[in-house]
Structures are given as structure tokens and as C-alpha cells.
Write a structure and sequence with these properties.
The structure holds two protein chains of two kinds. By secondary structure, chain A is an alpha+beta fold. Among the domains of chain A are: about 1-50, 2-Layer Sandwich (Uridine Diphospho-n-acetylenolpyruvylglucosamine Reductase, domain 2), CATH 3.30.43; about 170-265, Enolase-like, domain 1 (2-Layer Sandwich). Chain A is built from eleven helices and twelve strands. Chain B folds into four domains: about 30-140 and about 200-255 and about 260-290, Aldehyde Oxidoreductase, domain 3; about 140-190 and about 295-405, Aldehyde oxidase/xanthine dehydrogenase, molybdopterin binding domain (Aldehyde Oxidoreductase, domain 4); about 420-465 and about 630-785, 2-Layer Sandwich (Aldehyde Oxidoreductase, domain 4), CATH 3.30.365; about 480-630, Aldehyde oxidase/xanthine dehydrogenase, molybdopterin binding domain (Aldehyde Oxidoreductase, domain 4, 2-Layer Sandwich). Chain B is built from 19 helices and 28 strands. Chain B has a seven-stranded mixed sheet, sandwiched between helices. Chain B has a five-stranded mixed sheet with strand order 7-15-14-13-8. In chain B, a hairpin with a 5-residue loop joins strand 23 (about 590) and strand 24. In chain B, helix 17 (about 670-690) crosses helix 18 (about 740-760). Chain B starts with 14 loop residues before the first helix and ends with a helix. Classes of the chains: A alpha+beta, B alpha+beta. At the A-B interface, helix 11 of A face helix 4 and helix 19 of B. The structure holds flavin-adenine dinucleotide (FAD). Flavin-adenine dinucleotide binds near residues 51 and 98 of chain A.
Chain lengths: ~270, ~775
């Protein structure tokens, strides 16, 4: 790890101010992505701004048909939240599958979304649930937020403050874990909203998380696994590595989509 | 059996320390004035080093020194060695290329050692390493085992076509004749995948030099500290043997990877004298992936000949073994004498011929890894037998039974003389525990749910102990493979055992103490086991090849016998009886036919005060040493049965049942033995389903972290059904055969035989990842869909 200056603001405005003053800076949330890259000397920000002491970034609230989760909320808080379990149980079930207990006790929702790892779970949930990502500057629809592998709509120094999820009538996530890393090799989140079904796929796409329009149309007409028969995603848009080439990933998208619909319709 | 004697499931004495974080590993040692070493490693698989400029790095903050291969050469420090000479078929010695601890002019794999930076802190050492300018001329590389000799790349000058040796074993003519008259020939092509050992504790070394006494101390993660001292002194020449103390304290797993003498510990000892301060290096996980000796990596074609009755009459095997870029300490023995002599398996096969071509590639050195050669042999034999049974339409269990060796001793055509065993007994027990009879119902039930179920056998044998010295010497070993022990009885009657075995997870502190408690009749907490320090322990050959029980404990037993003999003399003096009348029973020395006795503690005290010794014939004290060299290898054997269920939609293989029935001879502690079986199976399942080290065309290791290299996890494994059968080993006084490697040896063919059974075809390689199984299952489902 290279040496860095460490800052610990206690409010969003203070953090934003620090970010504006410091060049070559990074926010640190749970650190479970950022710290390993720093240790391996792949990242070496001169300034590290820790969001951990900012109380206004934490917490889970429900108001009407919307569930809002603060950016610094840790996975474990989602798991323990009766509110989330009641509103969007699929979110709890998905969170159970994130990493291991260490990761779930340190990692944050905001960190996962800001990072937009192509195999992370939360980006799929945000996209399928039609979430709104709220920052210290604006509100960004999930459809506009995720812009490719490790790329988001966030500007330099922009802080995610919270994420709000419209509560769907039915939803589920089916994850095929990468054998080694346990991230999503393929993860499919399906959610039935009053205005239709959304299907988001993580882990598989060569350009990061994506929606599958053909599946959404079919499921909006008939929310049943069989509605997906004959629908496939294009192999040439899939990722490939030694554990799963593009053809296998494309195949798994179909299998996981069916399983997600089955789980959603069971519950 | 007493509560703490032989056969008792005594809880491990060492676990209190380990589980509460009180273990002391190399990295826990810190010496005054300590500096930190960081090795600059080659980013290229193959390159000539035109120049190394350390100038800018040397003046960076905290840098104490930077050394390169030139500095080692100037001090006449020798290269790393391979301690087992193999001769090719034509009688020529193996082609061993130079293996300098720091590169001299060339690097041959990614991770090869280019320079060492020694600094006040590790971070400063890393900063400085980034400032070293190395001018590489990158050369084409070859990483693929099967391509090594065909490639135009030349890795070592001594070997223009990258061949290390072309070796063979067995009787070629008889084997050809057997195939000529065979009714059926089964053929198979196999890859034994390359593995990264991944001990929980990475390697580490801390070198220290004491100018006052001209003494060197090395703390190192070693399975065999005396061997490390011998190699570092006699061959590499960093310090005279009597001036070098090697300490291997608590060591967190080895699996073979910590047998070898590596560049890093060599450099740490040498550099400690150069910089006049202690030098510490601790591997990080990435370095471990790149530079620990890897395991396995064979490409094999094998054929099995059977007669009209399904009797195996011949076996021929051709293997290409990848030894990596350099010959590691025992690498040459693994695909030769630890491999081909096991090709007879549990079977009576009259003719066997095996050829092994060992090759260099631009990859990390490959050496012994849990099982070392024997898993490779078992994979060949057990895959072939299973395939033969399928091709002949016979039950795989019964085909095995038909071919088992039943008369002992049994001389195989490939060196080994099996001493004892009852293979059918293990098979019967395993079939029963596995509920083999009702397997068809379970298969049907799986099919109803759209799943493919399969069952696979592995009837393995291994050769353990890795001894006797005369035998291994005749096969090319550079060392003797006995073991030594000293049993020191204190005046208070407590006992310290100094053993040349080394415990790095095996539980010696418990099992060795059980032997002492059993033999001397003293409580187990009166016994302590001392190992891992060349200044304390007289001598030793270390722990690998499941030799600590059969060889190490036998040395202790021999020393105990001497203690008892001496104790009888002491008791005779004290009890004023003749020595011949003294009996030792239940921890007491007594005069036969009388009720006169002395407890063990009383005799110990009398031995040291010597007040009642009359005359000069008896020396005071009660301390005896022994060296033990067995008469043969030991031959643990058993039957493992694996049952899997495959989800053809995803390719996920779930192990539903695992039955292991092993014959380890006499068992000292059944709980520890079961633990060894569990761990071994986990590693074998890892090899079969999950693990695989892959290099790309350019020689980059693409599985260099846990993100890509998949280790077995608890959820990948079922609950094991473990059973035992016992035929005591006749070649050591305790009847022990050894259990440390059995699971890793037995498991891979059991898993793959089960998967191929489920798939209905043989076309799957290790690791059978979900992707591979999914693809293979396409072929299975096609005919079903056509029905
Ligand atoms: C062993 C392991 C297994 C894992 N398995 C999974 C898995 O199965 N599924 C999965 O989805 N993830 C997995 N992860 C990733 C884990 O979820 C990460 O913790 C998460 O992706 C990042 O969250 P963090 O709080 O740790 O962020 P950090 O590492 O602190 O930050 C990540 C990035 O986001 C930025 N950032 C953080 N918070 C904000 C904010 N509020 N506003 C703007 N930018 C911000 C940081 O500057 C940084 O660039 C795993 C991680 C590990 C170490």
C-alpha cells in the first residue's frame, strides 16, 4: 500500500467539501473492494475520505411504496431489517448470497453500486427494481446510472447518499455463484411491477449489468417460467473466463431467469 | 486400551494453542534490528536479463541493501538442488539446469527471483523494488506440458528439447506379449491437473547472524528442518552445518510444499550476514501462487489388457510430467519412483511397463504435493479399471474383486513387494456402508427429478513411509530415509521426546505422547513432544509421505525400549535383585514372583540421584536415543465410493454420499486418523471438481488468486461415512501403515468415475467444473431427447 492522507468527515457536506479540495482522492466505504486493490498497489489515492462516520448515510426507511436504504448501510443491516424483509424479501435473499460473513459485515450498499463490478449483485437489484440512486447533487434512475464495467454516471467527487426502491408485487433473484470468487457468474433479478416486469442480469454481460427486453415483454404478458421458453441472450454480448465461456454464460442466463421466476411465483 | 494409550480418541493437545491464537509461527518471531526482504520477481515467463540497474532504488528511504544474482555468485553461494538422481533409459543422468537463488542472466517463469530488496519496512522494500530497472529481452515461452518438447523454446542450455529425462520401469517385452494375447484392451487419455498447494500459512523465513559466535539461525516454514540445514550447508553453502541452526516452529500446513529448500530462505540466511541484521521475509498469497512448488501436471496415455475372464494381464502407460522451469528438491522422484511402482494398484497384474518423459516448461517448479506420484498412479489405474468394467459390461466392484491381490507377500512387476492387506474385506465393508445394492433406486429417483446420478469406485493403494534407506538409495535418493528419536526421562518422571518428525497439522504432540503414555504407563500430560529445532533435536528427516507414524514413532518406540531396559538395570540395583528378574508392567518395575515394585517415577529419580548404584557398571541418567530404518515401505489401501448427482441444466455436481473404508494398519488415534481422511478427501475433491492452475500461452498464471483458483469449501463436501479395516503392518514394530495422504489419493478417480457413470460417457477432464460437466452433459442428453 502506498502512503495516503486519511480524512474522516462527519457530514455529507464536509465530505463533499474535502472531495472538492483534494485532488487524487477516493471515498472509502466498507473498503472490501478498495482496500485489496490498494494493498496490491493497483490503486494508490493520495487522499482517502472515509464515509464511515457520516450518520445521515445510514439507515433503512419505508414510506408508502418506496423503500430507501442509506448508502453506508451494510449488508448485514439489510439482512437484519424487518422492514426490508417485509417490503422486498428478494433483497434479503440476495444479500444472503453476497460474499461471506466478513464481506456482509463490512461491505455497503452504496459501495457496491458505486463500484459497479460486473459480477456484483446489487446492480442487478437496482436495475430490476427500477431504483433511484440519490447523490449529494441529484437523483439518477438506475437505467441511466450503470454505464458499463466499473463505470457509472457518478461525477468526480459525487457521493451516493441513498438508494430508493419501488416495492414490487413479486420479485426474486437467482444466482449462479462463480466457483472460486462466489460473486455472480450469472445472477438474474426479476421484479413484477404494476407497469410490467423488469429482468436484470449481472455477471454475464461483457458490458456489465443489463436488462433483457425480450424476457420482460414475455413475462409482462405471462409471469411464469414457461413464458421464457425459446428466449435466449446473444452469446457475443457475454463475458468469458476459464470458469465460464460466453456460450455457458448465455445458457445460464436462461436457466437462472427461469429459476428466478419460479421462486418469485412460489412466494 | 487405556484412556490415553494407543487406539484412544484423545483430543489434540495442540488445539488449545492453535484455536486460541497462541500458536507461534515464523512470522510471529521478531528479532532486534530486524529488516524486511522483498523479492523482485519476473513478470515474464521467459526472458534474458540484459541489465539490472539498482542505483536509483538503493538511495530510496529505508533501503538497507539490494542484492542480485551477481552478489550471490561473488560469495560463491551455490544454486538450489534436486536431491534425487534419475537416469534415462539410455543410462544418461537427468539434465539438471542451473537453479540460482537469484536469477543469473535469465528468468524462466513468472515469479522467478530477480533481486532482493532489504529495507527497514516492507513497504519501503516494495517502494524500492518498483524503482529497480530491469532490462528484459522477452523470449517466447512454453507452458503447455504436451508441447514442451515440440516447442522451439529452449529453457536450459543443458536440455535443447526441454527434456529432463526419458525414464521407464517394468518389463516391456512381457507387457507387449500380454497385449498381443489380450481379449480386450481398454485405452484412456488422462490429464492430471496442476495444483497449487495453498497451505493456510504462507511460506516465511527469518535469517539471523551472530558475529560473536559466527552462528546462523534460520526460522523457516519447513516440514524437515534438518534436511533444510543439510542442503543449505552442504550443497548451497550459505553456512557450515554445525554453525547453522534451523528452527521450524508451528507450521500451518505444508502438503509437501514446505519440504523443499527454496530461494527465499537461502537468501535470508545469506543476507543476514551481509547486512549484519536479521532479515525477514513472509510470502503473500500472490507470491505463494506464483512461487510455491506446484503439484501434479501429467499428461498420460494408458492401456489395460484383459483376458477372456476379465483378468487384467497387462498395463502400459506413457506419461509426460511437467517439472516446471527448474528441478525442485525432490521433483524428479515424484513422477518416477513415487509413481510407476504404484501402477499395479491392488491388482495382480503380471506385466506392467511405464515410460515417463519429464519436461521443463516456463512455469513454477512442480514437486511433491499430498500423495506425490501416488494420486497420479491411482488415477490412471482406477480410471482404467472402471472403464474396463464398463466396456466389458461387468460390475466395477466385482471386476476389481476378481483382480485383487490375495496372497501376501506379493511381488509386483514394478519394484513393490506388498506385505499385507485384505482388499476384499475393505470392498465388502464399503459396499455395505454405501448401500450399493439400492443405488439403482436412487438413480431412478434422481432421474424423475431430471437429475443424473452416478456412482464411482476407487480401490487405491499407496506406498508410505518413504523408506528404507537402502531401498531409496538404490533408486537414486541423495539421503537416507530413517528417522531418529530421543526419549529423555526427567528426575521427576516426566518425559520429553525429541523427534526428527515435524508436525504441521498432523497432531504429533498428541499421538506421539499416546505412544509414550501407553508404553511407559505414565499420564499423557507428563509427556511433551519436542520437534522442529536442529539445536534441540539430534537429527531427523522430517514429515512427508505419511512417514511420521510408521518411521518416526517406530524410532520413539525403539528408544522407549532402551529406556525400559535401562530402567530395569536401575530397578535391579535399587531393589537389590538380579536384572533378569525385573519385569516392567503397567508403569511399574517389579521383581518377578514378589510384590516388590518401583513406580516409573521412582526409577527415574533413582537413575539421576544414583545413590544406590553399586560398582561402576551402571551410568546415571535415563535418556536414550534411537535411529530407526524400517524394512519396507508400508502399503495402506482401501476403497472409496463416491455418489454424485448432476444437474444437467447447470452442470453442478453435488456429492451426495462418500464412503471411505481404509486399512491403515494399527491406529494410534482414530479421531486424528478420521480427520486426516476428511482433509485428504477434501483435497482430492478439490482436484477433481474445483482446483486447477492454468497458465496462458505466454506463461502468465491466470489462476494466481483465490478469485480464480477455486479451493474446496465445506459446502462442497458431504458428510463422510468412514470405516476402517485393520491388517497390521509387518515391517515396523507398531504395525502402522500411515494415513496422511489416502484421501487425496483415493478421491479424484472416485469422483470422476461417479461423474462418468452419471454421464454415461468418459469424456470429462479434471477439474470437472460446472461448465465442463454442463458441456459433457449435452452429449448425454442428446440420445435421451431422441428417444
Ligand atoms: C471476498 C469477497 C467476496 C465478495 N463477494 C461479493 C459477492 O458475492 N457479491 C457482490 O456483489 N459483492 C461481493 N464483494 C464485494 C463487496 O460487496 C464490496 O464490499 C462492495 O462491492 C463494495 O462495497 P464497500 O462498501 O466495501 O466499498 P469500498 O471498497 O469502500 O468502495 C468501493 C468503491 O466505491 C466507492 N464508493 C463507496 N461508497 C461510495 C459512496 N457512498 N459514494 C460514492 N462512491 C462510493 C469507493 O470510492 C470505491 O471506489 C465481495 C468482496 C470480497 C472481498
Amino acid at each position: 500500500m502506498y502512503a495516503f492522507e486519511y480524512h474522516r468527515p462527519t457530514s455529507v457536506s464536509e465530505a463533499a467539501k474535502l472531495a472538492g479540495q483534494a485532488d487524487d482522492m477516493k471515498f472509502i466505504a466498507g473498503g472490501h473492494t478498495l482496500l485489496p486493490t490498494m494493498k496490491m498497489r493497483l490503486a494508490g489515492p493520495a487522499n482517502l475520505i472515509d464515509l464511515g462516520q457520516i450518520a445521515e448515510l445510514r439507515g433503512i426507511t419505508r414510506s408508502g411504496d418506496t423503500l430507501t436504504i442509506g448508502a453506508m448501510t451494510r449488508y448485514v443491516e439489510v439482512l437484519n431489517s424487518a422492514e426490508v424483509r417485509d417490503a422486498i424479501p428478494a433483497l434479503v435473499e440476495m444479500t444472503e448470497l453476497v460474499g461471506d460473513p466478513h464481506v456482509r459485515h463490512r461491505g455497503t450498499i452504496g459501495g457496491s453500486i458505486a463500484n459497479n463490478d460486473p459480477s456484483a449483485d446489487y446492480p442487478a437489484a437496482c436495475l430490476a427494481l427500477n431504483a433511484t440512486i440519490v447523490t449529494d447533487r441529484r437523483k439518477i434512475a438506475a437505467d441511466d446510472f450503470f454505464q458499463g464495467i466499473f463505470t457509472t454516471a457518478l461525477d468526480e467527487g459525487e457521493i451516493i447518499t441513498q438508494v430508493s426502491f419501488p416495492i414490487p408485487s413479486q420479485a426474486a433473484y437467482a444466482k449462479f455463484r462463480h466457483p472460486a470468487s462466489r460473486y455472480a457468474l450469472v445472477g438474474v433479478f426479476v421484479a413484477k411491477h404494476t407497469d410490467g416486469v423488469r429482468v436484470a442480469v449481472t455477471g454475464a454481460g461483457s458490458n456489465g449489468v443489463f436488462r433483457v427486453a425480450e424476457m420482460e415483454d414475455a413475462l409482462s404478458r405471462n409471469f411464469a417460467a414457461d413464458a421464457l421458453n425459446g428466449i435466449s441472450v446473444a452469446e457475443d454480448e457475454m463475458n468469458g473466463d476459464i470458469h465460464a465461456d460466453a456460450a455457458y454464460r448465455a445458457h445460464l442466463v436462461g436457466v437462472m431467469a427461469r429459476r428466478a421466476v419460479q421462486a418469485a411465483t412460489l412466494g | 486400551m487405556t484412556a490415553t494409550g494407543i487406539g484412544a480418541p484423545v483430543r489434540r493437545k495442540e488445539d488449545q494453542r492453535f484455536v486460541t491464537g497462541q500458536g507461534r509461527y515464523v512470522d510471529d518471531f521478531n528479532r532486534p534490528g530486524q529488516t524486511y526482504a522483498y523479492f523482485l520477481r519476473s513478470p515474464h515467463a521467459h526472458a534474458t536479463i540484459r541489465s539490472i540497474n539498482t542505483g536509483p532504488a538503493k538511495i530510496m528511504p529505508g533501503v538497507v541493501a539490494i542484492f542480485t544474482g551477481d552478489d550471490l555468485a561473488a560469495d560463491k553461494i551455490g544454486g538450489l538442488i534436486c536431491g534425487w538422481m534419475i537416469h534415462s533409459k539410455d543410462g544418461s543422468p537427468m539434465k539438471a539446469g542451473p537453479h540460482p537463488a537469484l536469477a543469473q542472466g535469465k528468468v524462466r517463469y513468472v515469479g522467478d527471483h530477480v533481486a532482493v530488496v532489504i529495507a527497514e519496512t516492507l513497504a519501503q522494500a516494495k517502494d524500492a523494488a518498483e524503482a529497480i530497472v530491469v532490462d528484459y529481452e522477452v523470449l517466447p515461452a512454453v507452458a503447455d506440458t504436451a508441447q514442451a518438447t515440440k516447442s522451439s523454446v529452449q529453457i536450459h542450455d543443458v536440455s535443447p528439447d526441454n527434456t529432463v529425462f526419458n525414464w521407464h520401469l517394468g518389463n516391456k517385452d512381457e507387457t507387449e506379449a500380454a497385449f498381443a494375447r489380450a481379449k480386450h484392451v481398454t485405452k484412456i487419455d488422462l490429464v492430471n491437473n496442476r495444483l497449487v498447494p495453498n497451505a493456510l500459512e504462507p511460506r516465511a523465513a527469518l535469517g539471523e547472524y551472530d558475529p560473536g559466535n559466527d552462528n546462523y539461525t534460520l526460522y523457516t516454514t519447513s516440514q524437515n528442518p534438518h534436511v533444510a540445514r543439510l542442503v543449505l550447508s552442504a550443497f548451497i553453502g550459505v553456512a557450515p552445518e554445525h554453525k547453522l541452526r534451523v528452527i521450524a516452529p508451528d507450521v500451518g500446513g505444508g502438503f509437501g510444499s514446505k519440504i523443499f529448500i527454496y530461494a527465499e530462505e537461502t537468501v535470508c540466511v545469506w543476507a543476514a550476514k551481509k547486512v549484519k541484521r536479521p532479515v525477514k521475509w513472509t510470502s503473500d498469497r500472490t507470491e505463494a501462487f506464483l512461487s510455491d512448488a506446484h503439484g501434479r501436471d501429467h499428461v498420460t496415455h494408458a492401456e489395460m489388457a484383459t483376458d477372456e475372464n476379465g483378468k487384467i494381464i497387462g498395463l502400459r502407460v506413457h506419461t509426460i510430467a511437467n517439472l516446471g522451469a527448474y528441478l525442485s528438491t525432490f521433483s524428479s522422484s515424484v513422477p518416477t519412483y513415487l509413481y510407476a511402482p504404484l501402477l499395479s494398484g491392488q491388482y495382480d497384474i503380471p506385466a506392467i511397463y511405464c515410460e515417463v518423459d519429464a519436461v521443463y516448461t516456463n512455469t513454477a517448479p512442480v514437486d511433491a504435493y499430498r500423495g506425490a506420484g501416488r494420486p497420479e498412479a491411482t488415477f490412471v489405474v482406477e480410471r482404467l479399471v472402471e472403464k474396463t468394467a464398463r466396456e466389458l459390461g461387468q460390475d466395477p466392484a466385482e471386476l476389481r474383486r476378481k483382480n485383487y491381490v490375495t496372497q501376501f507377500p506379493h511381488q509386483t512387476p514394478v519394484i513393490m513387494a506388498y506385505d499385507t492387506g485384505d482388499y476384499a474385506a475393505s470392498l465388502d465393508k464399503a459396499l455395505e456402508l454405501a448401500d450399493y445394492k439400492t443405488f439403482p433406486q436412487r438413480k431412478q429417483e434422481s432421474a424423475r427429478r431430471g437429475k443424473l446420478r452416478g456412482i464411482g469406485f476407487s480401490s487405491y493403494i499407496e506406498a508410505c513411509g518413504i523408506a528404507p534407506s537402502q531401498a531409496v538409495g538404490s533408486l537414486g535418493a541423495g539421503v537416507g530415509l530413517w528417522e531418529s528419536a530421543e526419549v529423555r526421562v526427567n528426575p521427576t518422571g516426566s518425559v520429553e521426546v525429541l523427534t526428527g518428525s515435524h508436525s504441521h497439522g498432523q497432531g504429533h504432540e498428541t499421538t506421539f505422547a499416546q505412544l509414550v503414555s501407553d508404553r511407559l504407563g505414565i499420564p499423557i500430560d507428563q509427556v511433551s513432544i519436542v520437534h522442529g529445532d536442529t539445536d534441540k533435536v539430534q537429527f531427523g528427516m522430517g514429515t512427508y509421505g505419511s512417514r511420521s507414524g510408521a518411521v518416526g514413532m517406530s524410532a520413539i518406540a525403539k528408544a522407549i525400549d532402551k529406556v525400559i531396559a535401562k530402567g530395569k538395570k536401575v530397578a535391579a540395583h535399587v531393589l537389590e535383585a538380579s536384572e533378569g528378574d525385573i519385569e516392567f508392567k503397567d508403569g511399574k518395575f517389579g521383581v518377578a514372583g514378589t510384590d516388590k515394585t518401583l513406580g516409573f517415577g521412582e526409577v527415574a529419580l533413582q537413575a539421576y540421584i544414583a545413590h544406590k548404584f553399586s560398582g561402576q557398571d551402571l551410568e546415571p541418567g535415563l535418556k536414550e536415543g534411537a535411529f530407526y530404518d524400517p524394512t519396507n515401505f508400508t502399503f495402506p489401501a482401501g476403497v472409496h465410493i463416491c455418489e454424485v448427482e448432476i444437474d444437467p441444466d447447470t452442470g453442478v455436481t453435488k456429492i451426495e454420499r462418500w464412503t471411505a473404508v481404509d486399512d491403515f494398519g494399527v491406529i494410534i488415534n482414530p479421531m486424528i486418523v478420521e480427520g486426516q481422511v476428511h482433509g485428504g478427501i477434501a483435497q482430492g475433491v478439490g482436484q477433481a471438481l474445483l482446483e486447477g492452475a492454468f497458465y496462458d500461452q505466454s506463461g502468465q498464471l491466470i489462476t494466481a488468486s483465490f478469485n480464480d483458483y477455486c479451493m474446496p469449501r465445506a459446502i462442497d463436501l458431504p458428510s463422510f461415512q468412514v470405516g476402517m479395516t485393520v491388517t497390521p503392518c509387518p515391517s515396523n514394530p507398531l504395525g502402522i501403515k500411515g494415513c496422511g495422504e489416502a484421501g487425496a489419493i483415493a478421491a479424484p478417480p472416485a469422483v470422476i468415475n461417479a461423474i462418468t457413470d452419471a454421464l454415461g460417457h468418459e469424456d470429462i477432464a479434471m477439474p470437472a467444473t460446472p461448465q465442463a460437466v454442463w458441456r459433457a452433459a449435452q452429449k448425454t442428453r442428446m440420445p435421451m431427447a431422441a428417444e
